[in-house]
Amino acid sequence: MKWKQGESEGMKKNIDIGAFVVSVFSLVVGFMLLGYFNQEKIVNIKYDLLVAEYEDELNAYDESFDAYLKAYEQYELDLCRYNEAVEAAANKNEIPENGIIKVKANYSIDTSDNNSVGNEWGYILKINGSDLTYSPAIFSINAHDPFTICVEIEEYDEANSDYGFTKEVVHYTNEEILAGIGKDITVNVEEGDGRYTGHVAYIKVHIDIIREIEQIYIPNKPQKPVDDVMAKPVEPRRESVNVDVFDLIKDSKMILVYTVIASAIMVVLFILFLKKHWISK
After folding, report:
1. What angle do CA 262, 27, 276 make, to 5 degrees?
2. What is the pLDDT of residue 57?
3. How far is residue 232 from each of residues 54, 56, 235, 258, measured CA to CA in Å?
4. At a CB cut-off of 8 Å and minimum separation 6, what does 42 contact?
């Protein structure tokens, strides 16, 4: 059976349309097969990439958090030192529980009223046993107890030296010791031998005692570190991984090539089939 010329051209046109449809159908089927056989592989690849990216972000987050944590720990330490210094400065004038305070003592001696007993004098001054010979003297006392002043005066004499001694117990308050306590003590030294036997020298001793307050250094108040820690990354889930056509193309280029070749072969076979069974020579 032979077709007329018009019929032959129409048939060729139909064949072209059929070949196009077959090729498209072949490509679609190829992609479906490609996705079916490679989807799990691509999901694993994409998931592994997400996990690697997540681990990098998690490491960066840990480093950021550790840096902030160290800065905050240092801030708390500095703040504690600052508060301790402020509290110590506010309470520096208070008597501590153990009562031990430091005091500073100075003294002066007036020997002008010596009544001819002598002109060369030696002195021993002590407060609670602490020597005041080298003035000013700094030493510790117990603020809960009174302190005792002992003064011994010696008149130097080659033949026979004369001595005078006195002791005084001083009661005081914290306010008084902070303001400073001044004590005037007179020591009597009587001539025991010589032309002025019986004469009495009145040696006047003035002692100033004041509490020694330690200067406390107050550092600058520390600033709280800024919380600039990056947001904690979210761990990826395998079921959230999506695979699209582009992933298939990108991951399986050779399979795509094979699919296209197979589609072309199917088109050729289709055309040959039509020519053999529907087109008469």
Report:
1. 55
2. 84
3. 10, 12, 9, 44
4. 243, 247, 248, 251, 252
Which residues on adjacent β-strands are paired with residue 204? 110, 186
Residue type, 237: R
CB crowding 80-117: b at 16 or more within 10 Å, else e: eeeeeeeeeeeeeeebeeeeebebbbebebebeebeeb
3-state secondary structure of 91: coil
- Name the residue among 162, 170, 210 with its Cα closest to residue 187: 162
Sheet-wide strand order for 130-131? 130-131, 121-127, 147-155, 162-170
Residues found in the chain: 281
Q: Tell me the average pLDDT of the chain.
A: 78
pLDDT digits (tens, 9 = 90+) for 32-85: 555 555 666 667 777 777 788 888 888 888 888 888 889 999 999 999 999 998
Q: Is 276 helix (H, G, I), strand (E, B) or coil?
A: helix
The tens digit of pLDDT for each residue in 98-123 reads 888 889 999 999 988 888 888 888 88
Q: Which pLDDT value is given to residue 119?
A: 84
